[in-house]
Amino acid sequence: MGIILWIVFGALAGWIASMIMNTDAQQGALLNIIVGIVGAVIGGWIMSQLGKSGVTGFNLYSFLVAILGAVVLIAIVKFIRK
User: Fold this and answer.
1) What distance separates the 2 farthest-apart alpha carbons in the chain?
2) Exposure of 60 by Cβ count < 10 A (0-12 exposed, 13-18 middle, 19+ buried)?
3) Left if phi > 0, otherwise alpha if psi is -120 to 50, otherwise beta: which for 52?
4) Who contacts 69 (Cβ-Cβ below 8 Å, separation ≥6)?
5) DSSP state at residue 47
6) DSSP notation for 7-36
7) Virtual CA dihedral for 20, 26, 31, 18, nearest 10 degrees?
8) How many CB atoms lie within 10 A of CB 66?
9) Domain coordinates of the chain in residue numbers?
10) How far apart are CA 27 and CA 33, in angstroms?
11) If we measure between CA atoms, which residue out of 48, 40, 45 comes closest to residue 6?
12) Are 36 and 11 in contact (CB under 8 A)?
């Protein structure tokens, strides 16, 4: 059951990040999941560099960290594509 929750968590974080960055029309559900999960890793790394905890489970703080990481990931991809 844990992997399904991580997929849903990643999908929601990726979808919200894609709406923030105006790339929702370019991304499908699978890409939203990948962006959300990779974004959670990036967000966790960023927060650990700032001395805070990263993704700690299924809670609001971890969700916001995942969205932050996903937004950073999308911004990097948009920068490279230009």
Assistant:
1) 40
2) exposed
3) beta
4) 38, 39, 40, 41, 42, 43, 44, 45, 46
5) H
6) HHHHHHHHHHHHHHTT-TTT--HHHHHHHH
7) 0
8) 29
9) 2-81
10) 10
11) 40
12) yes
Q: What pLDDT sits at residue 4?
A: 86
- Residue 41: CA count within 13 A, CB half-sphere: 7
Rounded CA separation 45/34 (Å): 17
Pair of tokens at residue 73:
């990931």
Q: Can you give the pLDDT of all 82 residues of the chain as single tens digits?
A: 578 888 888 899 999 999 999 887 777 888 888 999 999 899 989 998 998 877 777 888 889 999 999 999 999 999 998 8
